[in-house]
Amino acid sequence: MKDAPMRHPPARRLFVQQSLLAAAVAMLPRLARAQAFPFRPLRVIVPWAPGGLVDTGGRVVADALSRALGQPATVENIPGAAGTLGADAVVKAQADGHTLLMGTSSLAIDVAGGRKTPYDPLADLLPVALVAETQSVVIVPAGSPIESLAQLVAAAKARPGELSYGTPGIGSPAHLFVELFCQTAGVQLLHVPYGRTQAINDLLGGRLSVMFSTVPSALAAIKGKQVRPLAVTGARQSDSLPGVPTVAEAGVPGYEASQWLGVFAPARTPPGTAQRLHAEIHKAVTAPATAQTLSSRGLEPRTATQEQFAGIVRAEVQKWSQVIRRANIKLE
Question: Taking the model in full, what pTM does it have?
Fold first, then answer.
């Protein structure tokens, strides 16, 4: 006579089922990571309000990734705290390549100035791809007697600390661009931080002597002959302002300042995923249609390897650290 098959008691059987279910649930994140990238929609976090240059860059990247990867990529604007809220959201996101940051030179400035952030920009964010660059233009009111950069330098040396300039705030790229100019040219200018108020209005009214404004922001006033461009701040002349020399060409050798835009991911993003993202973004930036879209909005397309991009970030930290220290600037 055969023995009856051994049966687990109901309680034992329930325990085994629950254990198997728990093990399966625990495996889900690992299985998700094992899936081929991308396996869900992507988010491109823009840490500034809609409508600006960073938002433009983010939407160009999102559109390119949507077409290339077969998954929708959408822009999510998370403004606030000088860009740190959006960056923090990316740092805390799952490091699988589906949440990206449209970062700017402000990340390097934060490190250079010791701004307190809930993350370490260099350790917690992975540079994925350089996208574009934008430079500024030195402008004076149309009625100003200053007609060249050499005359601006001469006037500033004749009246130390009297010529005024406006910026969005202390430690902003515009502020540091002017401080670098002062240190390189050996002059003193009076800083007037405006916060959210548009300083350009006071420049047009003659209440400010000079401004270093991004080229896209200044174009309308330049074309309307409301302001006079003296020089652009980058290493090369701007396609948007043909004939306007660089600051170095106009008599301040060694000066160069521009802002970059690039894509970052959480630091623990798998190398293969980061490389895939880099390849697709690089391909998009070098495509004529995308390059034209960026150029038409005042952004100059730029590319670099991941290693080169990381080097650019480190070099910017060193550069602005020196400017901030010499000018004794305290980031807000």
Answer: 0.86
